[in-house]
Amino acid sequence: MKKLVVMMTLALGAGSFGVAHATIVGSVHDFSDNISVLGGNVAFDENSATGWNGRKEICRVCHVPHDHARASQRYLNGLLWNHGVSSATYTMYNNAWSSTLNGTQSAQPDGTAKLCLGCHDGSVGVDTFDKYAGGVVFANQYSPDAKVTNFTDGTNIDLRGTHPLSIQFPAGDTQFRDPTSATWANGGTVASTLDNGKVQCSTCHDVHNQESVAGTHLLRTGQTAATGTASGLCLTCHIK
Ligand code: HEC
Ligand code: HEC
Ligand code: HEC
Ligand code: HEC
Q1: Which of 220, 222, 196, 189 shows the shortest CA–CA distance to 206?
Q2: Distance from residue 7's CA to the centre of ligand 4 (Å)
């Protein structure tokens, strides 16, 4: 069976150029098209009069191989981070609402969640990277569907309506599948997508991937019969 799957994957890969192994190239997070932002704030562009990512690189908007001391030590966020992060104070999921919440939740979003929120909370410009001051916040550009509901304008930074974040996956909790054996659609384990043992944005979403099926929001496992199984993402972790 395993051999068959490998052979099918190879056949797919050969026949359909990259479809079997979708990557960030051409995805919503590939800004190398250097498109001009809605609102037209393009003053910080290096080489082009009409876009904001004049170098037309993909990774550089988020990571840089060498820090050039152009901004305030963004690399301290780890992963050679090259994008602005938010200094906002968030209202976290309220663990007093539940008697069943066993994992320890950080007082504020931390780890890789801070990196996603550096664009998705609407308080930092998407174009705040490298030496550019930026300033065009998320809410003013791109598709409205790409905003985290009720969490979009940089002032409403309330995470109480969002799945618990920066929360330890509770060890040995019988309400959950074992993260070292539960797997996502691509075969990777849930554990491999935890960040120091915590559930973060990137546990559920793959920022380096394409939305191969419309409406799946870069989820690691589809949520509908058309994209996986009904509530397949939730049931990968929760035993319900
Ligand atoms: C829109 C921002 C963004 C872009 C663009 C981006 N990354 Fe990332 N990258 C992240 C975030 C956020 C994380 C941490 C969360 C995670 O691991 O998924 C990360 C993690 C990583 C990691 C370490 C963990 C892992 O998943 O392997 C590597 C390596 C990496 N990125 C390489 C790249 C490369 C190479 C490119 C360009 C081809 C790239 N990234 C483009 C945001 C980005
Ligand atoms: C990566 C694994 C994972 C996925 C996927 C996941 N959850 Fe969770 N969920 C958790 C963890 C861990 C907690 C915190 C549990 C704890 O601390 O006891 C949690 C907490 C919750 C809570 C709060 C429980 C309480 O006691 O207050 C709800 C409700 C919930 N999840 C629903 C969902 C839904 C609905 C989905 C699908 C959209 C989902 N979860 C997807 C891991 C996951
Ligand atoms: C550099 C800014 C930036 C960072 C950092 C970033 N994003 Fe995004 N993200 C965007 C933009 C801009 C879009 C919308 C693109 C569009 O509409 O064409 C987007 C789109 C998305 C979407 C698709 C929403 C939809 O329409 O379904 C998801 C999901 C997402 N991001 C999750 C994440 C996660 C998770 C992280 C961190 C691991 C992250 N993003 C980091 C800028 C960013
Ligand atoms: C427990 C899994 C889980 C976590 C953690 C999570 N998301 Fe999501 N996210 C989802 C699901 C499921 C959807 C699809 C919701 C729908 O269809 O209504 C979604 C949708 C989105 C969308 C599309 C717009 C929307 O609101 O429907 C964006 C953007 C997004 N998430 C970004 C993030 C960011 C940024 C974080 C961290 C701050 C995060 N997500 C954390 C599961 C998660």
Answers
A1: 220
A2: 33
